[in-house]
Amino acid sequence: MTPAGHDLWVFAYGSLMWRPGFAYEEARRGLLTGYRRCFCLYSVHHRGTPQRLGMVLGLDRGGACEGVAYRIAAANVPGIRAYLRAREIVNGVYREAVLPIELDGERSQEVPALTFIVERAHPNYAERLPLAKQARLIRGARGLSGANVDYLVSTVRHLRELGIRERELERLVTMVGPLAWARSHAQVVSPYAAALVQAERLRPAPVRRLARKDEMRKFLYRMRIGA
Question: What phi-psi label fits residue 8: left (phi over 0), alpha (psi between -120 and 50 degrees) or beta?
Answer without folding.
Answer: beta
